[in-house]
Structure formats: C-alpha cells, structure tokens
Design a protein that fits this description.
The structure holds two protein chains of two kinds. Chain A is mainly beta. In chain A, about 0% of the residues lie in helices and about 50% in strands. Classes of the chains: A mainly beta, B mainly beta.
C-alpha cells in the first residue's frame, strides 16, 4: 500500500539554525499538509499546499516557516532560526482531493529537537 | 470554528472485550467529515475510519465502527474484540465543507490488558 515517507525520523538542531524537513507524499495525491504535535499535546494544523501554492495556513505558520515542492515528488517544510518551542513531532500528510471526505494519510513523522 | 472534544484521557479494557471511545464535535458547517486516527507509542498516525455528515449508515472498517449520532454531535469509535496491539493513543478529528484541514481532539489513551 502506498505511503507517505518522511525524512529524517529524528533531527537535533541548535537553536537559531535552519532545518528542512522532507516528505514524499503518495504519488497520485494532490493536496499536501504539515501538522505538528508538541509532546503530550494534540496535533495542530500548520499549512496545506496545492498546485504549487499555499491554500491554507494557521496562525502558527508565520514568517519563520516556508513550504516548497522542489520537484515532482518531494514536499519540504523549512523552519528558519529555530526556537526551543519549535521542538515537536512534525507530520506530513497527503490526500487525493480537497473535499472533506477524503482521508489524509500521514507519514511517520519527524521528531525535531531544538537544543 | 470547529471543535473536537474527547473527554476520556485514558481507557482500560481487557483483551477480547469491546470498548467505546467518545468524541463530540461542534461546527457550523453543513457538511463535514469525521475521522479517527491511531497513534501507537512509536509515534506514527494511522488512519482508521471516516464518517461523512450526510452518510446514512454508520461507518465500519473491520473491528472498528463509528457510532455517529448527528443530533447529539457525537462520533464515538467502537473497537470490538480488543487486541493487545490496540494499545495506543486515539484521536478524533474533523474536516469542514470545502476544505480538508483537520481539527484534532486531545486524544484518548487506550490500554488493553491480557
């Protein structure tokens, strides 16, 4: 069964550094998402992406964050000048369509630790 | 704005018994979707089951069924014949009409004992 792939599984970075989290969505999916989950808390939406542009973003997704689809398969989340509070599990997800009845399939996540 | 409420922080069940995980929601959207995801201790998010707001029948997927009561705005997950491997965090989530961003609840930790 096709799946969403995320790399790396764990990233440790010094505060102030930039990180790039990578995702390969399911190949025929058109909508891509990033969510984050701070330890012990619920999953929070960051951003959705379609047709090479952001379609929705949350208040969390400020100028520190950016997303890109650099080629036909990868979808990346860049966090500039990381802060301690950016430590979280970051999930990439993809779905076949934008309608609310299509499940989003999640990757296994990248655990980001900011020191 | 959408809101998901999961009032059970933890649930315990014995192997082979059925268990119900509660989920209530609030939305002003006329059309929406309700989802359940499982998160084992390893951290990944696994899609379990989906219910559309206009679906006449409750969704079922193997041992999982969704008890959808629209008037009560509840979408409880029922797991029949629990297995040790069902021990995990379970999240209820919803999407709205015309967009698919998911709003998650805080989750319920299910522990299945032998």
């Amino acid at each position: 069964e096709p799946e969403v792939t995320q790399t790396p599984s764990h990233q440790v970075t010094q505060m102030g550094q930039e990180v790039i989290l990578r995702c390969v969505p399911i190949s025929n999916h058109l909508y891509f998402y990033w969510y984050r989950q701070i330890l012990g808390q619920k999953v929070e939406f960051l951003v959705s992406f379609y047709n090479n542009e952001i379609s929705e973003k949350s208040e969390i997704f400020d100028d520190q964050f950016s997303v890109e689809r650099p080629d036909g398969s990868n979808f990346t989340l860049k966090i500039r000048s990381t802060k301690l509070e950016d430590s979280a599990m970051y999930f990439c997800a993809s779905s076949l369509s934008r309608t609310g009845n299509q499940p989003q399939h999640f990757g296994d996540g990248t655990r980001l630790s900011i020191l | 704005a959408q809101k998901i409420t999961q009032t059970q922080p933890g649930m315990f069940v014995q192997e082979k018994e059925a268990v119900t995980l509660d989920c209530t929601y609030d939305t002003s959207d006329p059309s929406y979707g309700l989802f359940w995801y499982k998160q084992p201790s390893s951290g990944e998010m696994i899609f379990l089951i989906y219910q559309g707001s206009y679906d006449q029948q409750n969704a079922t997927e193997g041992r999982y069924s969704l008890n959808f009561q629209k008037a009560r705005k509840s979408a409880n997950l029922v797991i029949s014949a629990s297995q040790l491997g069902d021990s995990a965090m379970y999240f209820c989530a919803m999407s709205g009409s015309g967009y698919s961003t998911l709003t998650f609840g805080k989750g319920t930790m299910l522990l299945v004992s032998p």
